[in-house]
Design brief:
The protein contains three helices and two strands. It is mostly helical. The N and C termini lie far apart (41 Å).
């Protein structure tokens, strides 16, 4: 099971009870890989709901990593 929201005690209990393997990854790392596919499908979906031409729907996928584990500000 891959997620970005594991909690220590719940995981310990889950594993002690014989639960499946767990993999905890950062939010951006787990969510970003599927964003380009969604961006391709989204214009048609929005157009169908809004009653507009899909060509008029602009979608931008940010490539800026936003995980706190990879972002930092240099100390002075």
């Amino acid at each position: 099971y891959v997620t970005a929201d594991l909690r220590h005690h719940r995981v310990s209990d889950h594993l002690a009870d014989g639960g499946c393997a767990l993999l905890d990854v950062a939010h951006w790392a787990s969510e970003w890989p599927w964003c380009p596919q969604v961006a391709e499908a989204l214009p048609a979906a929005v157009a169908a709901v809004a009653g507009v031409d899909a060509a008029t729907v602009d979608i931008t996928v940010s490539r800026i990593p936003t995980d706190p584990w990879t972002m930092h500000v240099r100390s002075v």
